[in-house]
Amino acid sequence: MARKKDADRSVREKPAYQPGAEAEGPTRAVVIVPVLTRQPRGDEDTNRPRLTRSAEARHDEAVGLAQAINLDPIHTAVVTVNDPRPATLLGSGKVAEFAEIVKEGRAELVIVDHPLTPVQQRNLEKELNAKVLDRTGLILEIFGERARTKEGTLQVDLAHLNYQKGRLVRSWTHLERQRGGAGFLGGPGETQIESDRRVLQDKINKLKHELETVRRTRDLHRAKRKKVPFPVVAIVGYTNAGKSTLFNRLTGAGVLAEDMLFATLDPTLRRVRLPHGTPVILSDTVGFISDLPTHLIAAFRATLEEVVEADLVIHLRDISDPDTAAQAEDVERILADLGVDAGDGRRVIEVWNKIDRLDEGNRERLLADGIDGSKAPPIAISAATGEGIDVLKAIIETRVSGELETQTVTLKPDQLGLVDWLYRNGDVVSRTDNEDGGITVSLKATRSAHEEIETRLHRKNNG
Predict the structure, then answer these.
(1) Number of domains within the chain
(2) What's the pTM value of the predicted model, to 2 decimals?
(3) Shared-domain flag, residues 419 and 335
(4) Binding positions for GTP (predicted)?
(5) 446 lies in which domain range?
(6) Residue 356 per-residue DSSP state
(7) How does residue 184 score in pLDDT terms, banded at 50, 70 and 90?
(8) Per the annotation, where are the binding residues for Mg(2+)?
């Protein structure tokens, strides 16, 4: 994000790169959470009313988003908006009130946790005498801060440039028409704003070309994985649901896992063996969030293709969050946009995380309420403490490899080197030592493990 010098400079560029800025501390910000009294429209496909979040939950999330890029919210407020103003969204009285707060608190930035039109953003900046970011702009700033790989950086840059295109007008005061041609004889040329938009469009086209190259590379990697057909298991969920913590618990990886919105952005893939030896590729993806900008979903399509192509999707929910139902609905809506049916019980499994944060009474009530005649019991875990992880692993293995099957294997004396492998990849029910020095083992294992046993025995017999 720091490389963007065009129209809408990053929040981080204002204080972070000036001498002595570190001593001044984080950027002082005012966070405003508008709550519109109009009820959101229902889902067009299901005609179900959309779940609404409490004002307190929206406030806490907005503050969390601000703190995720080291902003200092010196003042936060929830504002009820009965009649959204086309010019400023908020009423004139509230705008004047916040202008005084910004002035007294010497705030440099105002966060409005709601989509703003370019006109509303420009007018608010004039009235408040401070830089204004809406929810989309703030999420873009966070994504720019978190991107580490080339692909992630390209995706954020593309989304940011698309966001800027409609907002260039607020950054220019020299919009007179440039003279075309040479000397004083040239006719009127293009306006400065038209020139700037053309430059932005050129950059967008270049980024799209680079992303297409990255996409082709990712497709090649995916094709190679398919040649060695390891099932792919993708973890998705609302941001801060504990995806990276679960990923680390299952794989032993060291992916950053903090109590912070969008702590990780770039996808991570690791190979892991399940209890009965089934190898899978586990994918940790970017967290979802309510009102995720459409162009952000489009920009991250290449990354999210890992979810589309996955054999199994784990929908991880923070069951301790009061708004877990609304968060789940947001995740399901984004999955639907990607072509993944969250109601497909064979491909998508719902996992309730952070069960350790509930007291015993709430835990029993939630688990009981989650069971009905049409829905499988939820899988309750704590990625932090490890509770329920063994059950989750077993369910994942059953989904990708089928139920355990019993098999009897007889090993000759020269095949006893396979005994350790059998114990590690199956549940040995009985073992009999034979007179010739070999053994006969009865074990329960997955279908893939049985196929691997036959392959290894064939190699031994023909070795």
Answers:
(1) 3
(2) 0.72
(3) no
(4) 237-244, 262-266, 284-287, 353-356
(5) 404-461
(6) G
(7) very low
(8) 244, 264
